[in-house]
Write a structure and sequence with these properties.
Layout: H1 7-22, H2 25-33, H3 38-49, H4 68-80, H5 87-100, H6 103-115, E1 120-123, E2 132-133, E3 140-145, E4 148-151, E5 158-160, E6 167-169, E7 175-179, H7 181-219, E8 221-222, E9 225-226, H8 231-259, H9 266-290, H10 301-313, H11 318-332
Parallel strand pairs: 1-3
Antiparallel strand pairs: 2-6, 3-4, 4-7, 5-6, 8-9
Helix pairs in contact: 1-4, 2-3, 4-7, 4-8, 5-6, 5-7, 7-8, 7-9, 7-10, 8-9, 9-10, 9-11
Length: 333
């Protein structure tokens, strides 16, 4: 199995990196956290033009997918730039609507998701995803309640996450869109996509934190020499790099198995756990080596540090992911 990206996938990553760099995502994130969604929705439209959301939508609904590997590539760059909004949830919702086989619901929402005109958030309480992210900014809030899929009529009170650019809600159930066993099966597949894209985001967040920390310790001096020249600092950075390097092939492998007809979906839990723990390690390293600067809101680094903490629990806590892996291993024993 080949885990390395091909030339086209690497070119796609570079194009997204350039787009997000030009968009000045830190200012977009700060505006989103303050409740101003206009810059974020403008960025959303540019991402849609680049084909990001179409990767989760089948061709019959004006999409390009489903393409799990390319989704992982895209979401790694979104994490690297800390892009705000229900990005993961929209990709998961697209998967859910496609898997349902309900032509009316799919036709109503999937073309809008692919074009960027519709931002959709999703809550699946039974599968360790009780909250709907950014329900106040979404065009639709979908809730899976057992064997029923509902379009929520209101999102209820909003709660702050550890990441100020993330608002969480427990939406109220509304109009039933679909019901039956197919809803539960589609929700499970949507959760797999959410775990994959969250893992990819975490990988990108960790890469950004490591790059920013390396730059900081190279420029900052103590006792007349760069901070990065100290052996203890080098060891800490090396441990962080190893954790990220180990996580990356797991994320790509999970994407490949998700795209296979009979893939081992336990790989998704392992990838999500490993990538989020690597991002958590990168955040701890960044805080330690930046010192008091790492705790200030004025430093853009804080945007990534807080996102690393939020992603660690989103779409599968560490305990949930470990239990999913162990359950599968026990079944195979």
């Amino acid at each position: 199995m080949r885990f390395l990206l091909d030339d086209e996938q690497r070119a796609f990553a570079r194009s997204l990196d350039a787009l997000l760099t030009a968009a000045d995502t830190p200012s977009v994130v700060r505006a989103w956290a303050d409740g101003d969604h206009s810059p974020g929705r403008a960025l959303w439209s540019r991402l849609a033009e680049a084909g990001v959301f179409a990767l989760a939508v089948p061709e019959q609904y004006d999409g390009l997918g489903p393409l799990p590997v390319e989704l992982a590539v895209a979401f790694t760059e979104l994490g690297r730039h800390a892009a705000p909004g229900p990005l993961v949830e929209t990709a998961a919702a697209a998967t859910l609507l496609n898997q349902l086989g309900a032509a009316e619901a799919a036709g109503a929402w999937l073309p809008g998701i692919a074009s960027g005109k519709a931002a959709v958030t999703l809550s699946i309480p039974s599968l360790d995803a009780p909250f709907a992210l950014d329900a106040d900014a979404a065009d639709a809030v979908l809730v899976v309640d057992g064997d029923e899929l509902r379009l929520a009529e209101s999102h209820g009170p909003l709660q702050r996450s550890t990441d100020p650019a993330r608002r969480l809600a427990r939406p109220q159930a509304g109009t039933v869109i679909a019901r039956g066993p197919r809803v539960r099966a589609a929700a499970a597949h949507a959760t797999d996509i959410a775990m994959l894209t969250t893992a990819a985001q975490a990988l990108g967040v960790g890469r950004a934190l490591l790059a920013g920390t390396v730059e900081h310790v190279t420029q900052r001096a103590q006792f007349g020499v760069p901070l990065g020249s100290f052996q203890a600092v080098k060891h800490r950075l090396a441990d962080t790099l190893i954790a990220l390097e180990f996580a990356e092939p797991l994320v790509h492998a999970a994407a490949l198995t998700l795209g296979a007809p009979s893939g081992n979906h336990t790989d998704l839990a392992a990838a999500k756990l490993t990538a989020c723990e690597a991002a958590h390690t990168a955040a701890r390293t960044a805080l330690q080596l930046h010192g008091a600067l790492g705790y200030t809101d004025e430093l853009p680094l804080s945007l990534w540090i807080r996102k690393a903490g939020a992603l660690r629990s989103a779409w599968g806590t560490p305990a949930y992911c470990r239990a999913r892996v162990l359950t599968h291993q026990g079944a195979d024993a």
